[in-house]
Design brief:
The complex is a heterodimer. Chain A is of the alpha/beta class. Chain A is about 35% helix and about 25% strand. Chain A has one domain: Rossmann fold. In chain A, a hairpin with a 2-residue loop joins strand 9 and strand 10 (about 255-265). Chain B has 2 domains: about 1-40; about 45-285, MetI-like (MetI-like fold). Chain B is about 75% helix and about 0% strand. Chain B contains 11 helices and 2 strands; from the N terminus they run ααββααααααααα. Chain B has helices at about 1-35, 45-50, 65-95, 100-115, 115-135, 145-170, 170-180, 185-215, 215-220, 240-245, 255-285; strands at about 55, 60. Chain B is globular, with a radius of gyration of 23 Å. Chain B starts with a helix and ends with a helix. The chains are: A alpha/beta, B mainly alpha.
Chain lengths: ~280, ~290
Amino acid sequence: MQSVSEQRENQSPPRTTDKPAVGSVGSGRWVLPPAPARMQVIGLNLYYGSNQVLRNVNLDIRDREITAIIGPSGSGKSALLWCLNRLNDLVPAARVEGKVLLGSEDIYAPDVEVALLRQRVGMVFQQPNPFTMSVFDNVAYGPRQHGIKDRRRLEEIVEESLRKAALWDEVKDMLDLAGTSLSGGQQQRLCIARLLAVEPEVILMDEPVSALDPISAYKIEELMLQLCNSYTIVLVTRNMFQASRVATTTAVLMGGEVIEYGPTEQIFESPRDERTDNYIRGRVG
Amino acid sequence: MVALSDATMRAVVICAGSLAILFVILIFVFLFAEATPILKEHSLADMFFGREWRPTSTPERFGLLPLVVGSLMLTVAASILAVPLGLAGAIYIAELASPRAQAVLKPFVELLAAVPSVVYGFLGLTLLAPLVRQIFHLPTGLTGFTASIILAYMALPTILSLCDDAIRAVPQSIRLGSLALGTTKWQTIRYAVLPAARPGIVPAVMLGIGRVIGETMTVLMVAGMAGTVPKSLFEPMRTMTGTIAAEMGEAARGSTHFHALFLVGALLFVITFIINAIADIAIRRRQPR
């Protein structure tokens, strides 16, 4: 398996195009090459009751790349992520203004079926949350709920998903064991496999490794780099090094506002906003 | 000092634990010791397959079948009513009700559990029994059906309240994990939350059923206490508990009748024990390792 840094180079093509992507900040040497946006956040405001959590957020989530959202605690990173698959619908008194496009559809349009949306935009959480059932049933859960009954087909899906999540070799002889009996890092990869089994287009990751030990975290980072060849990934993290290792594009969120958005190198090497500079150098946040 | 108090606590806890076990064993021994003398006069087979319980007629008959069948029919019927209703109610309160509705419903349900059984018996006797008699055109309203409705009503708060606790104890992350896979709220409850709550739901149901089997006063008042094997739920029937309660005061100490009642008690003990064991196995078996 390639190291993270080698893969990193494969992942980021040279940025020479001068046409900025829609919604990107600024112009000049560091602009994003044009790439189709899988999701677009347009003028998004989020309120919890009378408390405004997100302020006029505009963001492109580029197809089959990793977009990182970084920022200090309480800056609204997770809230923004939860807007992308409407998990915020579950928060009482949450109110959303603006648009979030998936392809060309507004996911907040009144006729959207939220369950179908969440099949296309799945989520991995901070704490691994396998169901209280066997490894096999965990992965087969989504396909079963979406109507696949045939045992052979389910076995295929489970194996394929576990392979994609780089977990198959570790669990292939213990598919009947409880998902919760795996180690933390394995549980998180199980949750990723469970998600891949429903064939999402976008994978939202809410600090997916912050509860894991460094080696498990490293494995998941490697996995993310592999997955972004076929999936669009949005990563929320407080770990700036992680963002710089895996993300092509990075958005910096502060006080509910996107203060900087662009190629990851630009954010880390020559940020435009003084607040980004301070945050990255550890002076705030 | 710390070491001493640790040792003391350990001793106290071990004593308390052993006493609990000892009491159960003593009750068991006492029941069987008092029950065995009857075997000198009546064979076990005669009693277990005896279809009549007539302790005061001559010759006296101690057929256990009416009691056992009565108890089991009532228990099964009451469980069929109470378990689905209790579970559905718990799902509603824990997952669907608004916080305000929750705040009203949960204490109300728990209040129902505190109503003395004699009050339920009274309600059954005066309100439900006449109604059952009229609706089904029966000679008497004091039937197994009437009793099972009242018993179900009594078991309901226990089942509902404990199932609600079990469902609520399921971490929110399980629900989020399921919803994030694009399942509906109902799918999430049925296939992710309920399996996770299962270790709490099974004991809740068993406690409810235990309350039904052990309930004495209500069945004494509304079940009709017939001495023959019931052919349907709409006949008067007699239970093991009700029989002991009604007749223990009249049976002369040391008489055959007295020992027969102890045999009924021992049987009740064994049945309860078996049900508990089944519940225990059910909890363990369905959990993946």
